[in-house]
């Protein structure tokens, strides 16, 4: 599994509360020790990356140790920036008398389901494609599993939405031409949202329509490039963290299958907080006996993946000293 830290992108996921933020931070520390310029990013709206490092983090990378930066994406700030960009694009479609209504709709959409996910997705795509270019490795500490899966499926929904918007506006001849230029063969290809849009032959568009087409094509290309990177196992891998308990096992098995069906490579599962053999006492003996059953179940249901184990630590993971200890356990487990 050492080669996972030699990839460009590493996604750490799992059910809430299993310790994936600690694992993401410690893996980033291991990579930085090996000389890789590393950025660890929290995409979970309930951030805890700063707590794990015991440092205040924000929306821009902060240097923590040589070779390691960290940041927490601010979902509210992303929503504001996302809606500002969308509003700017929509102005080109909207006649002046409809501007007040359009801006009212944009204000309402701040609280709409999916708005935060859409904004986060765009920021993640920009980190993958452009903003993270200075780093050898980007480690994403993702939101709990269900959220992450929705995030990864959003590009298709957003591309279909864009095409649908333009399709409904087809009574406008110029918008119809824009739609034609967004699709690979000059046809309407809503079913293939990741096909590369046309890049030539815009001479039949006026300046306004050409500008709209370029804006939407840039957006489509951004998601296309990000999705291709996520699907390429030579570039990107997903590691699930779970604990030897019933619900994390069930959720991990479902999530691994869901990513597999989506064509996203899962490299390993990592079993966290296993009671050390040296722990004594009747209470821990009984817990260990139950844990052994769950560990056997993990071996049985996830047998196709590496399943290294990390011990339950004596203290909470907070601060560089404890993270260094966890990093040592990860290296001993093969990372």
Keywords, please?
ATPase_ArsA/GET3, P-loop_NTPase, arsenite-transporting ATPase, 8 strands, ArsA/GET3_ATPase-like, 13% strand, 51% helix, single chain, 335 residues, 8-stranded mixed sheet, alpha/beta
How is this fold's topology laid out?
Layout (H helix, E strand, L loop, with lengths): L8 E5 L6 H14 L4 E5 L6 H5 L8 E4 L2 E5 L2 H17 L7 H11 L5 H17 L5 E5 L3 H24 L4 H10 L24 H25 L4 E7 L3 H16 L4 E9 L7 H20 L7 E3 L8 H13 L3
Parallel strand pairs: 1-5, 1-6, 2-4, 2-5, 6-7, 7-8
Antiparallel strand pairs: 3-4
EC number: 7.3.2.7
Catalytic activity: arsenite(in) + ATP + H2O = arsenite(out) + ADP + phosphate + H(+)
Protein name: arsenite-transporting ATPase
Q: Please state the oligomeric state of the protein chains shown.
A: single chain
Distance between the termini: 5 Å
Structural class: alpha/beta
The number of helical elements comes to 11
* Beta-strand residue fraction: 5-15%
Radius of gyration: 23 Å
Care to count the β-strands? 8
């Amino acid at each position: 599994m050492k080669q996972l830290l030699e990839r460009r992108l590493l996604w750490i996921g799992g059910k809430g509360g299993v310790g994936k933020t600690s694992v993401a931070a410690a893996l980033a520390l291991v990579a930085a020790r090996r000389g890789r310029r590393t950025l660890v990013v929290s995409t979970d709206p309930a951030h805890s990356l700063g707590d794990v490092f015991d440092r205040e983090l924000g929306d821009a990378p902060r240097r923590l140790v040589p070779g390691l930066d960290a940041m927490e994406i601010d979902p509210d700030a992303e929503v504001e920036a996302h809606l500002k960009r969308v509003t700017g694009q929509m102005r080109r479609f909207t006649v002046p008398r409809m501007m007040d209504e359009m801006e009212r709709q944009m204000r309402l959409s701040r609280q709409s389901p999916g708005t935060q996910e859409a904004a986060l997705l765009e920021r993640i795509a920009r980190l993958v494609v452009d903003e993270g270019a200075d780093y050898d490795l980007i480690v994403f500490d993702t939101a709990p599993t269900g959220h992450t899966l929705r995030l990864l499926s959003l590009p298709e929904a957003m591309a279909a939405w864009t095409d649908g918007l333009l399709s409904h506006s087809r009574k406008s001849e110029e918008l119809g031409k824009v739609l034609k230029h967004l699709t690979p063969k000059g046809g309407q290809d809503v079913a293939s949202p990741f096909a590369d849009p046309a890049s030539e032959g815009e001479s039949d568009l006026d300046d306004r329509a050409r500008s709209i087409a370029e804006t939407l094509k840039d957006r489509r290309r951004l998601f296309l490039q990000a999705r291709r990177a996520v699907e390429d196992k030579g570039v990107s891998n997903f590691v699930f963290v779970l604990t030897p308990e019933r619900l994390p096992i069930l959720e991990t098995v479902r999530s691994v299958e869901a990513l597999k069906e989506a064509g996203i490579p899962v490299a390993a599962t990592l079993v966290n907080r296993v009671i050390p053999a040296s722990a004594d006492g009747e209470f821990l003996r009984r817990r260990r006996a139950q844990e052994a059953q769950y560990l056997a179940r993990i071996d049985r249901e996830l047998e196709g993946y590496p399943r290294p184990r990390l011990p339950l630590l004596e203290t909470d993971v907070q601060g560089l000293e404890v993270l260094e200890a966890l990093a040592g356990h990860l290296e001993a487990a093969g990372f």
